[in-house]
Amino acid sequence: MTADTLHIREYTPSDAEATATLFYGTVHSVNAADYAPEQLHAWAPAIPDLRKWNDSLMRHKAFVAEENGEVTGFGDIDDSGYLDRLYVHREHQRKGVATALCDRLENAVSTGSIRTHASITARPFFEKRGYTILRKQSVERLGILLTNFVMEKKIF
After folding, report:
1. What is the distance between the alpha carbons of residues 133 and 5, in angstroms, rounded to a whole number?
2. What is the maximum span of the chain, computed from C-alpha positions, in angstroms?
């Protein structure tokens, strides 16, 4: 990937299937180093209902990263500064996709801080961007506990 080939654009409803598939694949591959198989299945049990998935992304400021027409990542943030999702395709990890998306997301809102619930896997990425851990927590999905970190970055 080069700066010339990566394109960040606003999410559209036609991106629902590609982003949902990317979410499922990323959780079950990239996050497998930090979570047990039953946790991965609770986090992303199947490709989500595309109508509900699209509706949730449309309620936020959402962006898609593309390279040569292929969706390589996506993320979304709400007006309060809650960065909900940030996922990069397993074959495009550590190529600047998450950084480019996060830059765009952080600049999309006018708040004093950005908050996120970072996975064990994503925690180092957010720490390098200046986010601090407010607390470690366990969240329940389908009766299974998952560890994540409530993190915040002050915007000046």
Report:
1. 33
2. 44
Report how far apart, in Å, the C-alpha atoms of 119 and of each of 55, 65, 68 are.
23, 20, 29
pLDDT in tens, 86-120: 999 999 999 999 999 999 999 999 999 999 999 99
Residue 80 near residue 114 (C-beta atoms within 8 A): no
Q: pTM for this structure?
A: 0.94
Tokens of 24: 């499922």
Q: What is the CATH number of domain 6-110?
A: 3.40.630.30
Token pair listed for 126? 């957010």
Whether the Cβ atoms of residue 144 and residue 42 lie closer than 8 Å to each other = yes
